Amino acid sequence: MSNNIDCVEKGPLTQDYLKKMDAYFRAANYLSAGQLYLLDNPLLREPLTMDHVKRKIVGHWGTVPGQNFIYVHLNRIIKKYDQDMIYISGPGHGGNFMVANTYLEGTYSEVYPNISQDVEGMKKLFKQFSFPCGISSHVAPETPGSINEGGELGYSLAHAFGSVFDNPDLITTCVVGDGEAETGPLATAWHSNKFLNPVKDGAVLPILHLNGYKISNPTVFARISHEEIKKFFEGCGWKPYFVEGDDPMTMHKLMAETLDTVIEEIKAIKKHAAETGDTTRPIWPMIVLRTPKGWTGPKVVDGNEIEGTFRAHQVPMSMEKPEHLEMLKEWLLSYKPEELFDEKGRLVPELAELAPKGNHRMGANPHANGGLLLRDLRLPDYRDYAVDVKAPGAIEAQDMIELGGYVRDVFKLNQENRNFRIFGPDETMSNRLGKVFEVTKRDWNNAKVDNDEFLEADGRVMDSYLSEHMCEGWLEGYLLTGRHGFFASYESFIRVVDSMVSQHAKWLKVTSELPWRQKVASLNIILSSNVWQQDHNGYTHQDPGFLDHVANKKADIVRMYLPPDSNCLLTVFNHCMRSKHYVNVMVTSKHPRPQWLTMEQAVKHCKQGIGIWDWASNDKGSEPDVVLACCGDTPTLETLAAATILHEHLPELKIRVVNVVDLMKLQPSSQHPHGLTDVEYDSLFTKDKPIIFAFHGYPTLVRELTYLRHNHNLDVHGYQEEGTITTPFDMRVQNQIDRFDLVIAAVSRIPGLGSKADYLCQLMRDKLVEHKQHIADYGVDLAEVSQWKWHSIAE
């Protein structure tokens, strides 16, 4: 029977087949509405009572019927063309549609055997939806076939393009809600077609679902003319096809014919490119689908129009009035469930045959469970890129330049696998990763002129688009479909994608608890152009608060590293690229900086994440008088400089220098897997000695991470929202993280120093005045600061 159906699907459309599609559409609508309302009596085979209805109705209906309509049509396309396809739902708050369709195709019951394809399973399917101890009302990680969280309004199209890069046989259908289309990330995502290689990449089929309204307002696209919409998408480089109407049978015929045209056009584009090698950007097709909001649902409730209005956005009726029960019954029975499901509650065989089989089902496609496809990167030995450090601080290097050599060779080793890319908005050269252009170029499939640099349609550096949203969204889609990459950004502008990273962390947290979801490569984020050197950008480019944002996410998912030099950065980066299912944040410098550790020392230090730098300390065999702690490249530099000043003027002082690479080491082990135990923490920081902590970011973060520790004799110095265009050292002075202020803070907290402390503090204040006068006169830092060199204080 299956083979006969397949033959029919590959042939011309028939009225009989369209009727079957409509029946499948009705079945999906019935299951979607049932999830909203029913606790029991799933097929209405006994009189409906209020005991069968959920007491609190929570969910969305407005977008659901349109997406059910799309899904059944895509099933036909998959079978007709043997097409590899996944579905991304932009208006994903209508999660009941995806649950309904994966249940009908059988995937849902395979993943969750307790939700069986029978009456009892249908009852459980209905009850669990948007119900305590059940499932979310939006498309969620728990839903088979999803890679886009329903709470992530605006990112669907970016995820879709990320999913097809280096996936030449995949078509990702991305349904864009007309309310979602008004968000910034989605609005700019239409230009992603300028970065698609028709030979090496797959294709994205956007379907803009116009149903007229957001929560309580009309949408912009719904209220502009057909001609204006057409011109808009043509101007963005698309060829729009329109499917509009409200009569199901008419719409089925129009949608089926349009999809055939669109898919054949996509295949023709790719065939031409593959046969000729011509990767010139084609004009890709897309669909504008206009259906009523809440299509096929209640027309009028309590005297208010529902279908085709904003009132259909959530639930059509609240079930607070007795007459609502009869209306619900009429609505559900309008789908004729007795024609759709057999006596046992299973979809009747002639309709079940409409769904694809095996991994061709969109709910079972491995691309939507990317860990199934994930293959480890081939990575070079990071130790081969070590900076040769003969003694601490003896040479300078630029950490990101050194990392660039390593990343270049990652590209070399994975040229055939095509499973690695860099993402970031127009900052690869600025962030000193330029060595990668020795082996690859920027991805760009648009017009070029003679003086352009490093542009080609097959480039693997995704930095030709000045949008943090887009680059980060592409990377998420790339990772979630089983590949590797990292996102490099200016530290201040990573804040643009706070919510995206937050949602991805939530996705990873939930999927880590689902045994059928396989782990994906970590979301690795490198933050450079950091707060402490903004001599030509100034105040707007100063914001280290991303660390605070990430620190609040689930401890099992987030990791934050602040390597103090190149060898530590290489060690940390190599670790992060090998990891899975984390959000790893690395904060680093791109400017010339002293190099502190040999590669051997860096490996040991980064493995522990925190440690005493014995070569910078002189407290061996005794308790320290003060602990100088540091985290980040600039705080490390200033802390070591402060240590030399203290030793020069107070040689009897016992100083311990503690450097932190893994920020989460500061948290107790009970709160974070990387956290130190109290015994370990106290062995580094003591239980009562003063700690002067120089931190890269906002001081409050260190206080929050350490508030449960024994030693509260803690003075944290970090960014205080001070400084504009000025010298590098003056940035530190204005935020009191400079060596002179650190010395003042240290001697002020050490008891028993007497007049020695007074005179040293006066000297430091004099130095601060001298510094201000010097930069005002000459515009550069004092020579004793800019030319400072480390000399050992260890006994």
Q: What would you say this structure looks like, in words?
A:
- The chain is built from 26 helices and 22 strands.
- The model has no long low-confidence stretch (mean pLDDT 96).
- By secondary structure, it is an alpha/beta fold.
- The strands form six sheets. The protein has a six-stranded parallel sheet, sandwiched between helices. Strands 1-2-3-5-4 form a five-stranded parallel sheet, with helices on both faces.
- Helix 7 (156-164) packs across helix 15 and helix 18 (566-578) crosses helix 19 (599-608).
- It has three domains: 2-359, Rossmann fold; 382-593, Thiamin diphosphate (ThDP)-binding fold, Pyr/PP domains (Rossmann fold); 611-786, Rossmann fold.
- 38% of the residues lie in helices and 13% in strands.
- It comes from Clostridium oryzae.
- Residues 13-372 form the Xylulose 5-phosphate/Fructose 6-phosphate phosphoketolase N-terminal domain.
- Its cofactor is thiamine diphosphate.
- Pfam families: XFP, XFP_C, XFP_N.
- Belongs to the XFP family.
Find the count of extended strands (DSSP E, 2+ residues). Answer: 22
- Structural class designation: alpha/beta
Q: What percentage of amino acids are in beta strands?
A: 5-15%
Query: Which CATH C-level class of the largest domain is it?
Result: Alpha Beta
| Average of per-residue pLDDT values | 96
Number of helices: 26
Q: Which residues form runs of ≥5 with pLDDT under 50? A: none
**What CATH architecture of the largest domain do you see?**
3-Layer(aba) Sandwich
CATH superfamily of the largest domain: Thiamin diphosphate (ThDP)-binding fold, Pyr/PP domains
Briefly note the CATH topology name of the largest domain: Rossmann fold
Shape: elongated
Tally of distinct domains: 3
Domain Xylulose 5-phosphate/Fructose 6-phosphate phosphoketolase N-terminal: 13-372
Cofactor: thiamine diphosphate
Protein name: Probable phosphoketolase
GO molecular function, one term: aldehyde-lyase activity
